[in-house]
UniProtKB/TrEMBL annotation:
Its cofactor is Mg(2+). PANTHER family: RIBOKINASE, SUGAR KINASE. Signal peptide: none annotated. The lineage of its organism: Bacteria, Bacillati, Actinomycetota, Actinomycetes, Mycobacteriales. Pfam families: PfkB. This is Ribokinase. The gene is rbsK. It catalyses: D-ribose + ATP = D-ribose 5-phosphate + ADP + H(+). Belongs to the carbohydrate kinase PfkB family. Ribokinase subfamily. Belongs to the carbohydrate kinase pfkB family. Coiled coil: none annotated. It is found in: Cytoplasm. Catalyzes the phosphorylation of ribose at O-5 in a reaction requiring ATP and magnesium. The resulting D-ribose-5-phosphate can then be used either for sythesis of nucleotides, histidine, and tryptophan, or as a component of the pentose phosphate pathway. Its main location: cytoplasm. Its EC number is 2.7.1.15. GO terms for molecular function: ATP binding; metal ion binding; ribokinase activity.
Amino acid sequence: RITVLGSVNMDLVATTERLPVPGETIFGGSFAQSPGGKGSNQAIAAAKSGGEVEFLGAVGDDTFALELRETLVLNDVGTELLREVEGPSGVAFITVDQSGENSIIVVGGANATVTDLSAEELAAIENASTLLCQFEIPIETVTAAAKHARAKGTIVMLNPSPMQPIPTELLECVDVLVLNEIEADQIGDDGLAGVPHVVITRGSSGATYRGPQGVEHKEPAMPVEAIDTTGAGDAFAGALAVAWNQGPEQALRWACAAGALATTVRGASPSLPSDEQIEAALTL
Ligand code: ADP
């Protein structure tokens, strides 16, 4: 079983001809509301790509909370430990202009309240085979969860996104670091040195793996007609967690297929592929 500890947000997406300047009001074209957040997206990605998944995180007491919980449930993600707290759920205000340029405001809301872990949550982490985390909830909580997982033999997979410096005490507990090229450059080779398994996603160039004793593997991207890369990284991370027990090479193959398929459909969570879709794409 995979336990995902992370964020869940409602994405509010407006399209405009151009991004507004300070003080300006402009008309937008379309508007869409869709469940997102890296934690929730990766949990759904893992569940759809064949994993048994449980989500640790928090929603607020607003109307968004109902839909956010429902989306996890509908995608077979376990929500027994999803907290409901007073106040707003996490939201992301996203503006996308005609050229595809965007500006984003994320308000943590309920996600920011995940500052401690209950005995029940710690038990869920230690009973899981893998803990998958990102940086959209307080980093201290991620560190505490990773330490507990490490002590109990649960594999710790970290997607350090959105990027912030990784505390040494957290990095020491990470078994698998999954990050994109930009994040990898920001951390630098020295920052990645002590981590046993490092997986770097490289967009349309696929992904690379660096393991213990200098083992390396390069997985080419699956050729697809990409229309929207939103969610590709989350699809990759969730699928990687599911396939990790088959070894890094197989896991990268599975995750690259998931990431590629996610780029062929618009949006984040609707674009996450199922295990049948991944298998079909790999046997083509
Ligand atoms: P992020 O969205 O986090 O920056 P990437 O852009 O590296 O992540 O995408 C994650 C994975 O999705 C890549 O490793 C790759 O396997 C797949 N992917 C992304 N873009 C494409 C593409 N244009 N064609 C094929 N696969 C892609």
